[in-house]
Amino acid sequence: MNSFSASFKSNPVDFHKIIPLDFKTANKLPDSHKWTDHPIVNPFTVGTVPIINLSDPNAISLIKHACEKWGVFQITNHGIPLNLLRQVELQTLGLFSLPAHQILSALRSPEGITGYGQPRISFFFPKLMWSEVFSMIGSPIEHATKLWPHQHARQANFCNIMEEYQKEMKKLSEKMFKLMVESLGATLEDVDWLKPTMSCKEPETLFHLNSYPVCPDSDSGCAMGFAPHTDSSLLTVLYQSTTTSGLQIFGDNIGWMPVHPISGALVVNVGDLMHILSNGQFKSTLHRVLVNNTHHRVSAAYFYGPPKDVKISPSINLIDHDHPPLFCPVSWKELLDAKAKHFNKALEVFRNDMVTAK
Ligand SMILES: O=C(O)CCC(=O)C(=O)O
Ligand SMILES: [Fe+2]
């Protein structure tokens, strides 16, 4: 059983919080989806998160600075074929344009990880989000056969593209993780599970296709696409469609600021586990998604984490008498369990310098 199965099994969600609204037939924003405490983007925000060309000889120091200051950056020259990005976007749009009865055949179960539904974090909010998600780990064949029972070519096409993309994302995530570790002055020898003797252990990953349908009325400003959260992963690689903006990050002293899509670029997010590994040096930044009343936005988020049961702790080279470890060792499963209970306060459970209800 992987970390997600184990954690989601012990923290099942309410069935009613799995089925999304039928966005295709909704012609106004229902009360259930109207958010009131919805701080707007700071209109005076200037600048953007860093855009880093991975072929730049200074890439490592640029990555370090971006992880420390922003916790989010965009990368170009990442080696992922543009055509594959386009194919993933087209498949995602095709999937989410299926009629409700058809896409519901792939509904996630209350304890399940994969399939169609509302984002799991819906559980923590009194209002629902204007979004839907399709989750997978590896091949989505089990769901594809239900989605397109009589269209074998379509099943195969969807699965091939999703598998190919995850293969590419795994390589890219490994590369980004190693660059981040090196930028901290650590070697791969400092990270237990990257030592050659441990190399038989595979990282755990999760892949989400996200859809933010057009929000029907002028109240779209009161709708929330994806509520503020941090990712629990080591890092997340996000592809966002270029048709419309929506992703925002929360900067100290800045407030909410947009991460506008750049054609061909990918967004990299520092996750909570990387924040722990860097002993708090890298930020796992709060982010959210807003929707609009003109464009359907889609994104594809690849969450990359450590192998099952591996505990992440602050890297040994960052610890000395003046810099004690801020966190105790924690596995992805333990962090997911804490998130299920404490959501955005989960990291506090593992802090050595805070006394919290465990
Ligand atoms: O759609 C996006 O831009 C962000 C999605 C996200 O934050 C997530 O899936 O964790
Ligand atoms: Fe996220």
From TrEMBL:
UniProt family annotation: Belongs to the iron/ascorbate-dependent oxidoreductase family. GA3OX subfamily.
Needed co-factor(s): L-ascorbate
PROSITE patterns: FE2OG_OXY (PS51471)
Fe2OG dioxygenase domain mapped to chain residues: 202-306
SUPFAM superfamilies (alphabetical): Clavaminate synthase-like
Gene3D superfamilies in the record: B-lactam Antibiotic, Isopenicillin N Synthase, Chain
Domain of life, per lineage: Eukaryota
Record's keyword terms, sorted: Coiled coil, Dioxygenase, Iron, Metal-binding, Oxidoreductase
Protein's name according to its UniProt entry: gibberellin 3beta-dioxygenase
Protein's pathway: Hormone biosynthesis; Plant hormone biosynthesis; gibberellin biosynthesis
Organism in which the protein naturally occurs: Quillaja saponaria (Soap bark tree)
Residues in coiled coil: 155-182
A single GO BP: gibberellin biosynthetic process
